[in-house]
Amino acid sequence: MNLRSALAAILLGLVLVVTACQPAAPAPSSTQPAATSTVSSAPTSPALSGEIKIDGSSTVYPISEAVGEEFQKAHPNVKVVVGISGTGGGFQKFCAGEIDISDASRPIKTSEMETCQKNGIEFIELPVAYDALSVVVNPQNDWVACITVEELRKMWEPDAQGKITRWNQVNPQWPDAPLSLYGPGTDSGTFDYFTEAIMGKEDASRGDYTASEDDNVLVQGVANDQYALGYFGLAYYLENQDKLKALAIDGGKGCVLPSEQTVRDGTYQPLSRPLFIYVSRKAADRPEVEAFVRFYLTQGPALVKQVGYIPLPDTVYQLALQRFEARKVGSVFKGGPQVGVSIEDLLKAEQ
C-alpha cells in the first residue's frame, strides 16, 4: 500500500468512529410521545379504611343505613355494615363485643348495662333523632280515626290475650269484626317503649299477635288486612302512606296525629321518643369509627329528615358531640324508657 492509500484508509476509519458516537435519530412514529407521569392530588382528608359493624333497632336502621351510605361516598375504603336484630338483639351483640355501634329505639336497660360491664364493654350513649311511634290501620278502616290510650291499653294489655278478639269489644260503636294485631317482637325497643307508654309497665303485653322485628313485615300485614291494627316507627308509616292510615292519639288532651310539629311541641304524647346509637368506647378510638360518629352527629340531621324521622334541636346534637369528644361513658337514663322525659334536659344536667 502506498502512502496516499494509507492516509485515505486512516481518514475513512476516523469518519466511521465519529459517526458511530453520534446519538441515533428517533424513528418516525405516528404516535405522540408518552406523557410525563404526575402524582395525583392529595385527598381532602386522611385516607380511612376498615369496617364498621352496626346492628340493632329496625327503627334506627334507615338512619344508620343512610348515614353509612353517605359516609362511604367520602371514604370508599371504609365498609359500613348495618344489620337489623332489634334493639335487644343489638345490645346482646354489642355487649358481647361483636359490633362497634348498637342502634337503639330506647335507652339501654340496667340488665344490659350489667352484661356490658361484665364483658368489659364501655359505651357512649348518643341521641340521634326523634321518632313518633305510629299506630296504623288499613285504609279501608272507616270506623276509627282517633284512638285513646285507654282503648289501646284494652287491646294490648296482657289480660286481653284470648279475650279481646273483636273490634266492638274495645268500643261498642266499632263493628263486630275480627281484631288483627301486628307489632314488634319482644327484642324490639319499640315494643319496650310502647308497653311502657301505654300499659305503664315495660314488656306488659298480650302475646297472641303477629310479631316481627322487621317493620316491613308489619306494614304488609296491616296493608293486606282490613281489620288490622299495628304500631311501629314513623318512617315506616311515611314510606307507606298509600297502604296505611295513621290514627290520631288521644292521651287525655284531644286527638293528635304524629308529625314533626307535634313531636317538637310535645303534643304527641305519650308516643314520642328519642332514638340512639351506642358506641363502643374502645371502637371510638379507631380513626374510621371516630370519623363516622362525628359525621353521624354533624351530617346526619339532614339525613334523619330524609328518611322520615325528626331531627333533634341543634343544641342536642352539639351536646351529643361534646359527649362523644369527651368519651363520656354511661347512660343519662335510669335503665330503660322514660316516657315524656326531655333528652335535652338530661344532657344539660350532666354538663
Walkthrough of the structure:
This protein folds into 2 domains: 50-130 and 273-345, D-Maltodextrin-Binding Protein, domain 2 (3-Layer(aba) Sandwich); 134-264, Periplasmic binding protein-like II (D-Maltodextrin-Binding Protein, domain 2). Helix content is 38%, strand content 18%. The protein has 13 helices and 13 strands. The termini are far apart.
Q: What can be said about this structure in brief?
A:
The chain is an alpha/beta fold and 351 residues long.
Which helices and strands occur, and which strands form pairs?
Elements: H1 3-21, E1 50-56, H2 61-74, E2 78-82, H3 86-95, E3 101-104, H4 110-118, E4 123-132, E5 134-137, E6 146-148, H5 149-156, H6 167-170, E7 180-184, H7 189-199, E8 210-212, H8 215-223, E9 228-232, H9 234-238, E10 245-246, E11 248-250, E12 255-256, H10 260-264, E13 272-280, H11 287-306, H12 314-325, H13 343-349
Parallel strand pairs: 1-2, 1-3, 6-11, 7-8, 7-9
Antiparallel strand pairs: 3-13, 4-13, 5-9, 5-10, 11-12
Helix pairs in contact: 2-11, 3-4, 11-12, 12-13
Task: Kindly list the characteristics that best describe this protein.
351 residues; alpha/beta; D-Maltodextrin-Binding Protein, domain 2; 2 domains; five-stranded mixed beta sheet; 13 helices
